[in-house]
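About this split. The held-out portion is used to measure sequence recovery: a designer receives only the structure tokens and must propose an amino acid at every position. Recovery is the fraction of positions where the proposal matches the reference. Here is one held-out target exactly as it appears in the evaluation file.
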């Protein structure tokens, strides 16, 4: 910012200042139990003293990010449980909002062997063949918000959205860079399985300090779109199998595949155990709200993500988090959140998740299903929060020449903008808050997009390592922000 001001680019400097003063979630991961207990206690105590609401992003689950960019986390289930216990100890009876383990459910260990990426077209169930006769309800709503900077780290005004940046250096009391998830989701399925390769941006071993964002801001009434657009979900063709050349080769391949699948299954079972333990432990606190990972609107079909949420203990949680570190629009997230919540209520009442509506259905059929399956007690429906830190311009469409390669549309996409400011005034009773969970300005990784590198073929430069500050991207986020952050 200082360099920009010296060059006379006061508009860009002011925009960056406004960005880093906007509340952002405080990330915790890879700290020891003793360290995380102390850091969480400090953040929540400071927030309580100011009458603010802190938002914590917990990111330490074993097998995090399939060992890719954001590899790390606890080594065992028992180690993770001890870490969660320490987080709970740090929170105590203070009010807090927790975004629990981004990518942990949308990217299970059983997904790690796949080759599909977020750029792979999503598979969804076909439209309902019969014409519904049920009256259609009003469409889903979506939020927007404004911000006013304030000085304390990791908190937010009561009744407003929160945040601060993550502390990554052990013992640090001033926020620096954070481990941030930037998933590269796999193929959407309706059976509860999705393949994926790589995802969130990792936390660097030695984080590069970045401007410290403000931790909280007042809420502002959200502007609501009356009719969100339904996200098209083209289907993908299933892969064909190549027969082995011999019985011996077939048996060897089968044995290896079985062993790998068994290992993945055991890790996936452990993942559900870990997340459920975290839910039970944190929800036992007097004033904690906990939101599980549900990916984003262009990753899993509703019928795919709901069984994962159920296995992970969503019944005991406050709700789920959407679009963490991603770029889906507010409209897309609001619709997806409404559908996931409705399906969860339907399943809790004995329904089959495979018969839930997916985001690829026509708007008419979606409304008909929602109208026909209203829960007896709407207040029991699960709530959700969304990440609006970088979705001001929506998702990036790769140039035509990259669409058949590994476009990595999730990785430092160009010309994206900051989104709606954090707020709890969303206007939707199910949408608890729009938050800046991802720290805007941090790189998602090197982004080679299927090339040998080292430069990003779209940007023409070598991107910083994931988690490090990326000047070019930060300036783009300010320049293309919607709503604007500059005078």
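Reference sequence for scoring:
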């Amino acid at each position: 910012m200082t360099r920009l001001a010296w060059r006379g680019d006061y508009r860009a400097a002011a925009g960056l200042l406004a960005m880093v003063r906007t509340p952002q979630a405080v990330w915790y991961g890879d700290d020891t139990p003793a360290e995380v207990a102390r850091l969480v206690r400090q953040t929540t105590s400071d927030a309580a003293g100011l009458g603010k609401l802190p938002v914590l992003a917990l990111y330490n689950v074993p097998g995090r990010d399939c060992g890719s960019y954001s590899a790390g986390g606890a080594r065992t289930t028992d180690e993770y449980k001890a870490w969660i216990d320490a987080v709970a100890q740090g929170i105590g009876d203070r009010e807090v909002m927790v975004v629990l383990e981004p990518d942990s459910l949308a990217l299970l260990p059983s997904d790690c062997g796949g080759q599909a990426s977020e750029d792979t077209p999503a598979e969804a169930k076909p439209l309902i063949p019969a014409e519904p006769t049920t009256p259609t309800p009003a469409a889903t709503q979506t939020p927007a918000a404004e911000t006013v900077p304030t000085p304390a780290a990791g908190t937010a005004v009561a009744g407003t959205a929160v945040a601060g940046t993550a502390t990554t250096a052990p013992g640090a009391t001033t926020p620096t860079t954070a481990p941030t998830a930037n998933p590269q989701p796999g193929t959407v399925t309706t059976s509860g399985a999705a393949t994926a390769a790589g995802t969130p941006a990792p936390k660097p071993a030695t984080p590069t300090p970045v401007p410290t964002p403000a931790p909280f801001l007042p809420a502002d009434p959200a502007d609501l779109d009356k009719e969100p657009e339904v996200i098209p979900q083209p289907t993908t063709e299933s892969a064909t199998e190549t027969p082995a050349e011999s019985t011996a080769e077939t048996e060897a391949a089968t044995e290896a595949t079985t062993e790998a699948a068994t290992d993945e299954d055991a890790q996936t079972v452990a993942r559900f155990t870990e997340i459920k333990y975290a839910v039970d432990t944190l929800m036992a606190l007097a004033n904690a709200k906990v939101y599980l990972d549900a990916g984003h609107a262009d990753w899993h079909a509703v019928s795919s993500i709901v069984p994962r949420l159920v296995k992970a203990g969503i019944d005991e949680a406050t709700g789920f988090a959407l679009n963490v570190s991603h770029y889906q629009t507010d409209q897309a997230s609001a619709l997806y959140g409404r559908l996931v919540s409705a399906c969860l209520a339907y399943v809790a009442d004995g329904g089959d998740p495979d018969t839930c509506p997916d985001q690829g259905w026509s708007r008419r059929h979606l409304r008909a299903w929602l109208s026909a399956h209203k829960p007896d007690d709407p207040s029991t429906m699960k709530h959700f929060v969304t990440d609006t830190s970088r979705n001001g311009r929506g998702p990036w469409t790769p140039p035509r020449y990259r669409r058949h390669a590994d476009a990595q549309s999730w990785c430092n996409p160009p010309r994206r903008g900051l989104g709606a400011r954090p707020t709890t005034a969303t206007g939707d009773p199910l949408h608890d808050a729009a938050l800046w969970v991802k720290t805007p300005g941090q790189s998602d990784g090197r982004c080679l997009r299927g090339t040998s590198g080292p430069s990003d073929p779209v940007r023409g430069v070598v991107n910083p390592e994931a988690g490090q500050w990326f000047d070019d991207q930060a300036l783009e986020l300010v320049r293309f922000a919607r709503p604007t952050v500059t005078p």
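Annotator remark: The chain has nine helices and seven strands.
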